[in-house]
Write a structure and sequence with these properties.
L-amino peptidase D-ALA esterase/amidase; alpha+beta; nine-stranded mixed sheet; 11 helices; L-glutamate N-acetyltransferase activity, acting on acetyl-L-ornithine as donor (chains A, B); homodimer; 2 domains; 15 strands; about 400 residues; Ubiquitin-like (UB roll); globular; ArgJ_beta_C (chains A, B)
């Protein structure tokens, strides 16, 4: 993804989750997916990495969530995370839990680490038990495939995908107290995307020295303005999980709130999460474009977030964007039903640079120019409410024939 | 619609909004729609009818809402309601308000009644001012078209449609204190349907004698379990309005809570609203079938309603129904994210008669039978939570290619 050097961090072109010191990754096809795409992968750290997780708030949670929460909660460190796609291991009862524990314990044994130093994650179909013979064969082969190379990182990124079309990965570097620290991330997500406190699957690696508590705080803060601000279809998954692992091998003095570079690290972490979140939105099931809704002038940031998420989640707005129709009426209707304090007479709406509504009054605009803009691969919708200073950005995608096609035929 | 005589009321086949004594209706094409379908209609009562309204909770409200609230609020009676389709008269500023008042005042003058005895309603595109010359020509011609015939009622029903495919109307009769009372209704709605305290446009006529206050109370009660329980796309309109008018010409002793037939009247009114609400859901934009979600065993009825609406609103569930895929995983995922108290281990899910989940464990089922059932024109989804006695029913439709086609090209 594009290079950005105007900030305190530098985007590393070609960087990956194995760029931070201490991390290897890998992936292979063990047979859970019907295609030949990889479906089993792992990230392994050569030292115990400080770890933090954010998980779905769906009350129905998949078995691997329980196991991973237990592992991360145990000591706040992880040596590895094992991920399968093709099967969510959700609503699979006692058998599902047994399988998730067996994935954790067997992989830990192969790596020669204790079970609670391994996290597990699954994504795919709900309600089918795992083909554990295939997972076991894959696990046996996986350690030999682990490497700190871009290719091995790509193998991992492919292994976590379901209906995604593209792999999603990013890496940045920044100076922390004179040492170079890297933060990298990989994610998957295309359908059942409406994260609530977490997202589908996201993995962040860093070689920064940082304890698991400040890491958890920063991860939650970053999640609130990135993964929690995207939606593909309004459906919150049973398997959402974002895990961060910090190896500490960059050699910096451990980061805490008192550290002078704490804010710089936080901002770089937000950037990494934002790139991944936007990549998930752009790769939403059936999507042809990324939609970015920017709300300002709300009573508070929280209010702006609620309004931005209502607009980005509107099926009518999403369909209009697909049809390249500058239908601002659907945008203002969504703003009005968000349940947040607004003044219905003071709303401005801009689509890209095209002003369509000022102080809630339609503005004549160039339909040809609007059509041309809406046919692009990124559409920005700006809403200014003029009732306060709150602002927020949300990301989503258009609603297309392909979304229906993909989801009308997913399971069968 | 089908005859039902097992209840305290009888469905009148061929009945319409002009069956209750005192009402005439009519409709014509004045040129607001590009097609030749009617786009201007009215219901007129020969006496002042007790009136009550329920309106959208969207904070952005169209001009006719303001005018109608003023009319209904003035004396609690109405002589007429004038409706146009093809233009919502929403976000049209001072000009829009002026136009809505002019519709009310001019039509009142033609009928020889006072302005506040006329309500107005609009539906269609947001943000364009009304072509008032066309509306005026139509209004001049309309009084001569009004009649108490089924054909005239049909003309009205057609005049209020937008992307709807079918007209929606129902009529019942019941004895009230020895007199025969009729309740009839007409409605429209196909897109931007996620009513919050009201629905798109609904009109109920009755010849019962009832004051505007008990009528308003019963209308709100009926709305909560009917129109407020349907969703097509999760978008609440700026123009939602449900109006009831009672002529009193049935000659019954005025209905109040103390009247022995009050409950029978309430139940007949709920039936009328339910028929119309289900008809809107079945005629949802692009829909190929009606989906009915029945939740029981929730902590409370309110909780059951929230869960039922979350399931019926899930794009993933809706796509699966379109694809005739018995994808109960998406149903339980929606139940889990509804934010209501559940026990994730005690959920039963049944699709029609086919049990797919018992106590949150998958049950092997006949995929062929499920496919055959899901290909029908009505799909029932039953969820039993086993945590209480609360229950609710919600109605919606499937998400199809046609929904996207219709909404990707609506305005342009």
């Amino acid at each position: 993804m594009a290079s950005r050097t105007d900030l305190a961090y530098t985007v590393i072109d070609g960087g990956s989750i194995t760029t931070p010191k201490g991390f290897k990754a890998g992936g292979l096809h063990c047979g859970l997916k019907k295609t030949t795409r990889h479906d089993l992968g792992a990230i392994v750290c050569e030292v115990p990495a400080a770890a933090a997780g954010v998980y779905t708030l769906n009350q129905v949670q998949a078995a691997p969530l329980k196991v991973t929460k237990e592992s991360v909660g145990e000591a706040g460190t992880l040596r590895a995370v094992l991920v399968n796609s093709g099967n969510a291991n959700a609503c699979t009862g006692a058998q599902g839990e047994e399988d998730a524990y067996r994935m954790r314990d067997d992989f830990a044994a192969q790596l020669g680490v204790t079970p609670h130093q391994v996290a597990v994650a699954s994504t795919g179909v709900i309600g089918e038990t795992l083909k554990m013979d295939r997972v076991s064969s894959g696990m046996a082969e996986l350690p030999a495939r682990l490497a700190a190379t871009p290719d091995a990182a790509d193998d991992f990124c492919q292994a976590i995908l379901t209906t995604d079309l593209v792999e999603k990965s990013v890496c940045v570097a920044l100076p922390i107290g004179g040492k170079t620290v890297h933060i990298a991330g990989a994610a998957k997500g295309s359908g059942m995307i409406h994260p609530n406190m977490a997202t589908m699957l996201g993995f962040v690696t860093t070689d920064a020295a940082i304890g698991s508590e400040p890491l958890a705080a920063l991860l939650r803060q970053a999640t609130d303005v990135t993964f929690n601000m995207i939606t593909v279809d309004g459906d919150t998954s049973t398997n959402d999980m974002l895990l961060a692992m910090a190896s500490g091998l960059a050699g910096n003095e451990a980061l805490s709130e008192a550290h002078p570079d704490y804010a710089a690290f936080a901002s770089a972490l937000i950037y990494v999460c934002e790139v991944l979140a936007k990549a998930i939105a752009r790769d939403g099931e059936g999507a042809t474009k990324l939609v970015e809704v920017k709300v300002r002038g709300a009573r508070s940031d929280a209010s702006a977030r609620a309004i931005a998420k209502t607009v980005i989640g509107s099926s009518l707005v999403k369909s209009a964007v697909f049809g390249a129709d500058a239908n601002w009426g659907r945008i203002i209707a969504a703003v009005g039903r968000a349940g947040e304090p607004i003044d219905p007479e003071t709303i401005d709406i801009r689509i890209g640079a095209i002003v369509t509504l000022e102080q809630s009054r339609p503005v004549a605009f160039d339909e040809e120019a609007a059509l041309a803009y809406l046919k692009g691969d990124t559409v920005e919708i700006h809403v200014d409410l003029h009732v306060g200073e709150g602002e927020a950005v949300a990301w989503g995608c258009d609603l297309t024939y392909d979304y229906v096609r993909i989801n009308a035929a997913y399971r069968t």
